[in-house]
From TrEMBL:
Quaternary structure note: Component of the eukaryotic translation initiation factor 3 (eIF-3) complex.
Family, as annotated: Belongs to the eIF-3 subunit K family.
GO annotation (BP), single: formation of cytoplasmic translation initiation complex
Main location: cytoplasm
Protein name in UniProt: Eukaryotic translation initiation factor 3 subunit K
GO molecular function: ribosome binding; RNA binding; translation initiation factor activity
Known role: Component of the eukaryotic translation initiation factor 3 (eIF-3) complex, which is involved in protein synthesis of a specialized repertoire of mRNAs and, together with other initiation factors, stimulates binding of mRNA and methionyl-tRNAi to the 40S ribosome. The eIF-3 complex specifically targets and initiates translation of a subset of mRNAs involved in cell proliferation.
SUPFAM superfamilies on file: ARM repeat, Winged helix' DNA-binding domain
Organism: Agrocybe pediades
Compartments where found: Cytoplasm
UniProt KW keywords: Cytoplasm, Initiation factor, Protein biosynthesis
Entry-linked InterPro entries: ARM-type_fold (IPR016024), CSN8_PSD8_EIF3K (IPR033464), eIF3k (IPR009374), PCI_dom (IPR000717), Transl_init_fac_sub12_N_euk (IPR016020), WH-like_DNA-bd_sf (IPR036388), WH_DNA-bd_sf (IPR036390)
Length: 241
């Protein structure tokens, strides 16, 4: 997982050279990295380090700042939870005023608190609350102008929930799982079958296959103390009396 985070298999040689080479902070390359971001959005790929490079270039060159690019980077990082990608991206956002350089009002001050709230819900595994907030009328702007453009966004959120379920449950009711995934009925059944999990038709309980995270194994710790060592301990304790 760490190697894929550092160098995703979908990253081209050109982007690899930009991200890892001396041109990482060359402002003339920002257009290439921005195009790569939009490729990620269309193709359901993700490259955190390349996106962080864009934010770093914006830090060094405020005139390059593009709020829509920043928002799209944050949306992609949102579904990397529980990895720290979202917070890494937020840490590179400048406090300086950039709105004066834009032809239109900067949407980031409005969108950023919303994305932070969504990230908090995902990170704390409050998936039903996430879907409730995400589908609310207050977030219509986010859905209609941003996440609608991100291919597979809702499935990426579901993947976050599935990672948490895999690590926590061996069995879970279909109703509860459906609330985590914002799915029900045939759509939920199809999703579970796609995962290779099974649903008990009589109890509506979903069985989660065993994995290292959801299996509790007893651990026996044995310590071997040799007689000479025990003698020294006893002798030392006697000198304290």
């Amino acid at each position: 997982m760490a190697s894929e985070w550092l160098s995703p298999p979908t990253r081209s040689e050109l982007i690899e050279n930009l991200v890892s080479g001396v041109d990482r902070y060359n402002p003339s390359n920002v257009g290439i990295l921005e195009d790569y971001l939009y490729h990620q959005i269309r193709s359901e790929e993700y490259d955190c380090l390349a996106n962080l490079a864009i934010l770093k270039l914006y830090q060094f060159n405020p005139d390059l700042y593009n709020p829509d690019v920043v928002i799209n980077i944050l949306i992609k990082a949102l579904t990397a939870s529980p990895l720290p990608d979202f917070n890494l991206c937020v840490s590179l956002l400048d406090d300086r005023t950039t709105a004066s350089q834009l032809d239109e009002p900067d949407p980031l001050p409005t969108i950023l608190p919303i994305l932070k709230g969504l990230h908090s819900l995902l990170f704390r595994c409050r998936f039903p609350s996430f879907w409730e907030v995400y589908q609310s009328a207050e977030l219509e702007l986010l859905r209609d102008n941003y996440t609608v453009e991100v291919a597979g966004f809702e499935d990426a959120v579901r993947a976050v929930a599935i990672r948490a379920v895999r690590a926590t449950f061996t069995r879970i009711s279909s109703e509860r799982l459906g609330s985590y995934l914002n799915l029900s009925g045939p759509a939920l059944t199809a999703y579970v079958q796609k995962l290779g999990w099974s649903i008990d038709a009589s109890t509506s309980v979903v069985s989660v296959p065993p994995n290292p995270d959801n299996q509790i194994e007893a651990t026996v710790v044995q310590e071997s103390v040799k007689l000479p060592q025990l003698t020294k301990v006893i002798a030392h304790s006697m000198t304290k009396v």
